[in-house]
Amino acid sequence: MKVGIVGAGIMGISLGYFLTQKGVEVEIFESTGDIGGLAGPLQLEDGTEVDRYYHTILSSDRHLASLCQELGISDRMRFNETKMGFYYNNRIYSMNNIIEFLRFPPLGWIDRFRLGVTVLAAQMVRDWRKLESVSVEAWLNRWGGHNTFYNIWRPLLKAKFDGGFDNVPATWIWSRLVRMKSTREGASQKEEAGHLIGGYRTLLEAMAERIEAAASHIHYHTPVEEIVIENGQATGLRVRGEFRPYDVVVNTTPTGIFTRLIPNAPESYHTFLKQQQYLGVICPILVLDKPLTSYWTINITDDTIPFTGIIETTSYIDPQYVGGHHLVYLPKYTAPGSEWQQKSDEELKTIWLDYLRKMFPNFDVSSIRYFVMNRTPFVEPLHGLNDMDKIPDFQTPVGNLFLSTTAQIYPELTNGESVTQYARRTVELILKR
Ligand SMILES: Cc1cc2nc3c(=O)[nH]c(=O)nc-3n(C[C@H](O)[C@H](O)[C@H](O)COP(=O)(O)OP(=O)(O)OC[C@H]3O[C@@H](n4cnc5c(N)ncnc54)[C@H](O)[C@@H]3O)c2cc1C
């Protein structure tokens, strides 16, 4: 069997690796010149490579850990204790232990207790499907009460969804609370964050080496122009104007790109796929010569500030691994069609730095080594209330054509852990066919 894969992000590379381990020949096509897609690197002006977007590995990412072990790169994993904070009313509040939690000013005693109950309630959920028809707002209000919702959750949700969140099901917060709680293990309940030295590239290249060693190939700068469909069957790919035959084709690109690649798929399938929407992200990296804070994540509960949070990855990555720099990511998630994505890089930089100075009046602008703008329109699939039937199957209505993308990852969050797990699942289906 010979399989053609569209995209060399973590999904495409994991599919290629798992398939070649089963003796299947693969060819992977990537439109850009590098491995990794959203999980890939970028090069700073001084030549240092850093993750384009912040990528944290949690100690509970067991599939990822066993994959690293299998590839012989576990010794490149590092975990460090981290801190989380909240920006509220022009101040940062540390929220890392029960004492800090009990001191958090916007909440009274009862609200604090109910916030704790909310986290516990998420851990107690046995059947997440029951949360499919409950809105995130209703669920958070039920467990945490109005005050907690108004002061904590509402600004966080507004920032995450770039405005409205009426149609967001409670599964969204449930999967996040469960994932975050899973990092706090043991009696100390200390929070840890981890990374691979060299970033996700280390994992991706270890898999790519195995793919090439199995006489399969990854082609960079080679966009797939069409997934060729004849008589309801995928027969191959059109690349650089040439037809290349495959027994099976797997697409890993977001559904918006996929629909453009399959002009000969049934119209009803196009209509179905077009329902899928994504959040985008604008996420500059501030490269500094000293730390901004000591926090891994600062959640911003002030909806006048455009970015959603402050993620300082060098709070857990030793700067020696990233050229001695301190890396601060300032993400703003954007709704489909958001006007934020229309703004120029220069406009965004001015707005971002203005707000940063508002938050940190003593911020020393001369500590900025680089300010690198990154953005993408498709980062996180959006699932509405009772939307399970809108999630596309791995097996498409076209014979020999599989779809394996983040749009199918649900209710888990989309990250290296879930993407590699779903890639394994797709491979099992391909081998069973
Ligand atoms: C701001 C941000 C923060 C994140 N934080 C984390 C985190 O902390 N931890 C974590 O594990 N994950 C995190 N993620 C999520 C993670 O990056 C993604 O879930 C994962 O990278 C998705 O991989 P993918 O292969 O499915 O998709 P993609 O990375 O989108 O890969 C698709 C690939 O297809 C290529 N392509 C597109 N069109 C064509 C074509 N016509 N022909 C050939 N190739 C094509 C693209 O160039 C791309 O390389 C984060 C993502 C972002 C943006």
Description:
This protein starts with a strand and ends with a helix. A seven-stranded mixed sheet has the order 7-6-16-17-18-15-20, covered by helices on one side. A five-stranded parallel sheet has the order 9-2-1-13-22, covered by helices on one side. Strands 10-11-12 form a three-stranded antiparallel sheet, with no helix packed on it. The protein is built from eleven helices and 22 strands. It is of the alpha+beta class and 433 residues long. The chain has two domains: 2-55 and 199-276 and 392-432, FAD/NAD(P)-binding domain; 80-196 and 279-379, Polyamine Oxidase, Chain A, domain 2. The protein has helices at 10-21, 62-70, 98-103, 109-124, 136-160, 171-181, 200-213, 255-261, 267-273, 345-359, 416-432; strands at 2-6, 25-29, 41-43, 49-51, 77-81, 84-88, 91-94, 192-196, 217-219, 224-230, 233-239, 242-245, 248-251, 277-282, 285-288, 297-300, 309-312, 326-329, 332-334, 368-372, 375-382, 401-403.
Rg value? 22 Å
Total domain count: 2
SS summary, helix count: 11
Alpha carbon gap, first and last residue = 11 Å
Tell me the major beta sheet. Answer: 7 strands, mixed
Second CATH tier, the architecture of the largest domain? Alpha-Beta Complex
Query: Which CATH top level class of the largest domain fits?
Result: Alpha Beta
Low-confidence stretches are none
Topology, please?
Elements: E1 2-6, H1 10-21, E2 25-29, E3 41-43, E4 49-51, H2 62-70, E5 77-81, E6 84-88, E7 91-94, H3 98-103, H4 109-124, H5 136-160, H6 171-181, E8 192-196, H7 200-213, E9 217-219, E10 224-230, E11 233-239, E12 242-245, E13 248-251, H8 255-261, H9 267-273, E14 277-282, E15 285-288, E16 297-300, E17 309-312, E18 326-329, E19 332-334, H10 345-359, E20 368-372, E21 375-382, E22 401-403, H11 416-432
Parallel strand pairs: 1-2, 1-13, 2-9, 6-16, 13-22
Antiparallel strand pairs: 3-4, 5-8, 6-7, 10-11, 11-12, 14-19, 14-21, 15-18, 15-20, 16-17, 17-18
Helix pairs in contact: 1-7, 1-11, 4-5
The structure holds flavin-adenine dinucleotide (FAD).
Residues 6-12, 29-32, 37-39, 53-56, 223-224, 252-253, 257, 281, 283, 331, 379, 405-406, 414-416, 419 line the site of flavin-adenine dinucleotide.
